[in-house]
Amino acid sequence: MTDPISGLSRSQVQLNPGAEKAKHNKASEAAEAAAPKSAAPVNDELILSDATETAMATAEFDAEKVAKIKAAIEAGNYPLDADRIAESFASLERMIGGK
Q: Coil, strand, or helix at residue 35?
């Protein structure tokens, strides 16, 4: 089945190969967050890599496709396939270690 908006079939959709690494990083971050903090106030700072800065500055997207999706949502005509959504959730659960 091909999605009428994206034009992609199920076989063309790929799972995120970095998901396992991201899951591990989140676990490490949670452990660090649970560690005792010093009483002195700390100023947080976020430093983005050059690649991230470039990607954000030159982000490309299909404005026409976004407009079509917005119009379909506003008109109440956005196609939802309950079976496909359920299968996607089941796939995500398996990927993150669910049963």
A: coil
Query: Full-prediction pTM beyond 0.70?
Result: no
CA distance 57 to 52: 8
Q: Report how far residue 91's alpha carbon sits from residue 71's, in angstroms, rounded to the nearest whole number.
A: 29
CB 4 within 8 A of CB 84: no
72 in a structural domain: yes
Question: Is position 37 within any domain?
Answer: no
Q: What is the pLDDT along the chain (99 residues), one digit of tens a residue?
A: 566 666 666 555 454 555 555 555 666 676 666 655 666 678 889 898 999 888 888 888 888 999 999 999 899 998 888 899 999 999 999 988 865
By residue range, what is the domain housing residue 82?
A: 59-99
2: helix, strand or coil: strand
The runs of H, that is alpha helices, within 1-99 are 19-34, 50-57, 63-75, 82-95
